[in-house]
Amino acid sequence: MWCKGQFAQPTNEMKVRSWYGISGEIEVENELWHLVRVGSVALNHPPLINLLLRRRLPRDERLRLSYLHEFGHFQTLPLALSHALWVFWAAYGQRRSLLGWFAWLTGFVVAHEAVWEFLSEGYVLIHDGAAYREIYRRTPNPLVPAFWFVMSGVGVALTAWLIRTGD
Fold first, then answer.
1. In a domain, 37, yes or no
2. Of 50, 85, 123, 144, which has the fewest Cβ atoms less than 10 A away?
3. How many domains does the chain divide into?
């Protein structure tokens, strides 16, 4: 089980283990790339959400919250997969044209990403609690409330559209 102290002084690479047993590594290489590895599967990606949410924060806080956010993806993977499976199950049997399928799949990817980012940052908020709120009280960032509003809205609205649409 991870505690706040283990994220207080981030190193370049952190070995993590989720509550459901998956082990992996998180590496915040620099301000432009993050690496998440589970076994031999590596996902290099730009930290778009972290760049938006952590802007103007002191470097130590920015790195700590970025590591927590990436670890949040590990911790919330079962919820994100449950969302994906629920959407596929609810939409099973819907008929669409080729263009309709393209629109549906695009909507699915965007909805899934919004839901998973929301869950991951929710993990950060729950894990960090009052410290999270204090950090953003000291260094206000208007993109933080916008993130919560947009990600929840996009996740809910697109999920509803995905399970109700068909040609």
1. no
2. 85
3. 1
